Amino acid sequence: LNLATTAGVTRNTLLNLGALGRNLEFLAHHEAAGQYYDQLLQMLSSSSRTENEEIFTIPAAMHHVLHGDQARGEAILREWIRTNLEETNSHRFRREPLEQWAYEALHYLGMHFIATGRPQEAIQLAEKVNRYKPESADEQNGMYHGLVARAFLGLGQLDRALEELARVHDVESPQFSKVEGAKLEILDLWIDIARIHVAKQDYEKAMAAYVALAYNLGGLIADPRAAPTVRWRFYWLQQMTFVVHEMISVWMIIADAQTRQMFEATVGNALLQLKGNLFVALGFHRGPFGSIRFELFTAARKYAVAARKVISRPGDAEAFLELEEALREREEVERSLSTADINPSPASAEIFSRDFRSNYLLTEESLCLDYSLVDCHPPQNGLAGASGGLRYIGVGLTAGNLRVVDLGEAHEIETLCRPLIQALSTQPLADEGEGAAPEDSKQLAPAPRDQLHESIDHEDVAKRVFSRIVAPFEPLPRALSFSSDGVLSALPFHALIRNGRYLVEDKDVAYCYSVLQREMQYYRQLSSSGAVRPPVSRSALLLGDPSYSTSSLEPLSGTKIEVSEVGILLRSRMSRSEDNRFPLDEVRVKTGADATVSQLLAVYQPVILHIAAHGRFDAGQIPTYASRSVAFGRHYRWWQQVHASCINELDNALLHSVVMLADEPNAIGDPADGGLLTALELSSLNLFFTLVVLSACDTGAGVTESGAGVLGFQYAILASGAEAGLLSLWKILDEETSSFMIDFYQYQSDRQGAKAAYLAAVRKHCRRDGHRLHPYYWAALVFLDQERGHVR
């Protein structure tokens, strides 16, 4: 600016100011960006006409429209349009077409006119701008007709809007065909088509349009070119969640019971696919690793350390720069591991053309119960509707049958379930009879309990929760698998009471993200490039009783006994006799100062990974540059949403789920001295064919993302491809947990699989002397069943 004052304004001055404004806008520092854009506009107004002036004028004016003085921004753009695009005496001031970025920016000016109640101005703008569309204009055609269609929607002219959309899409019978290379703005037209059909109460065409849109979004998640990193896949998943939730909202407002039933399978498939596509978003495209083993883990660990520096040094620009660099390195590794050769079917949108009632992994003796927290926002008069609130929707899937049940408003379900979760996760007083701890157990002092907990009859509430959440899917087969969202993700379903008994006493209860997860694992294993082979060397790694000498954490003596006893049991499986189905070649037990995170790098793809230590889930937020909207489409520079922060919701959740191990001597610069293992790092390991046991507090807790389940260690186990997992939903006692774990491995050594061993241990610990024992002592531990027996 000083140079411009003394030596005059040059093109380089304008370029630098424009770049600075865009970078600040990119980081959501809109006030500072506006100041530099104002300087830029002032220089343009006081100097002679500049070549390609629109590269400065349009971004600066659009920033005012979206984030500053709307009237000023509009006035600048109107003047530019009058000078450059309008005809006078049949002469055009401009002969060449607009560049694509300028065309898109003016398109969003039209969207701004519609959003502010001026649809007629949007139509006039669209007609002017459309004369100067680029030569390869398929995408611009879609944007033009889409803008005009939305303007007609704003005028209440549904038929005219449908006519415009028909110029670029088949509005009568949308197909599943993929829109190659389509941008979000083009796919966005499908939601307009769907909303118009909803307004006309033509639900069959509306559902077809929603499905076509979700199909393409699923394809983007499954396409490593469109989604080369986890952040991109998670972004597309969020967009897909918005679309699927709107489709379900429409299904719920259909009054005719027969019509609702006609679309029940479509709705159920859509909800199942959301969680199925989460697996794609996590790393379905990872190749079989080959010689690459720990590069992704190392990059994730560097990123986690940089994030801790941001927390410990708030406002430090150098810490943020280090975090950005760590993210860049991590995503480079992700891209190098990504492969387009893996057949994503049915992990991609082909799921919508399938009938999951014929799922080969399901039998008449198994039932998957999938619970989703749905944001209901049915459209109004062909336009986006306001949120009508959150509801829980349950999907019951078994061989030959799929049922969708609206369980009710979220606050009703949460009001019912939260007191039960609190009662089960709080240590009972010693005089509570059958709920008391055994006399021979060593336990912590009883936790303080609030008035609500004092007055609750947890068994009565457990019966009522079962009646509201699970009973609608009766009759129940022997094997039950639960996948849940929201508050239900913290609910131990196996401790609910049915017919006077804990559910787990009569049913084989396990947990998973989605039944589709198993099917996608199966398809991956069938692909030549994506199949992961069992390790040549079968090792077990046990970490326990970490040294906490430099921290305020209490030592956990029970964990030393736990890993020692488990190690003895596992070494008994090292023989390769005919009656040993799962022989081990090596059992490593590390305790004290040796129980460090770096031990994970010493064993590649272990068969068993067991960590007994302190754990925690901290729901605090790491500072980010900007929050992002997840509403589908209609964003100016929508791609910036992916990059607006170097920590997105997914990273933030994973960085706050931690297990605390011993300090690393060489962890220079890490505020945690290298002693934390986050869910982000665990998710970056290749743990196919591994049983992961996290014997620590709160390892099953996390952030619940609508449509994506629990983002924490549950996510990490899924992303790593682990065979199965054992986690805790709340704070657990040292000695009690050690006793449970020893029994769990003892049952495995008796030739039972991991799931059967878990069920046997739970059934042993849920009763004492024939009486029901309070679930606090045994129900926290949940088994994530991701078994792929068909694959092996």
Give a brief rundown of this model.
With 792 residues, the protein is of the alpha/beta class. A six-stranded mixed β-sheet has the order 11-10-12-16-19-22, sandwiched between helices. It has a five-stranded mixed β-sheet with strand order 5-4-3-6-9. It has a three-stranded antiparallel β-sheet with strand order 13-14-15.
* Biggest sheet architecture: 6 strands, mixed
Fraction in helix: 40-55%
| Proportion of residues in β-strands | 5-15%
Q: The CATH topology of one domain is what? A: Rossmann fold
DSSP summary, beta strand count: 22
Strand order of the largest sheet: 11-10-12-16-19-22
What is the name of the CATH class of one domain?
Alpha Beta
Please mark out the parts with pLDDT under 50 across 5 or more consecutive residues, or reply none.
340-353, 431-454, 625-630, 634-638, 788-792
CATH architecture descriptor of one domain: 3-Layer(aba) Sandwich
Structural class: alpha/beta
- Rg result: 29 Å
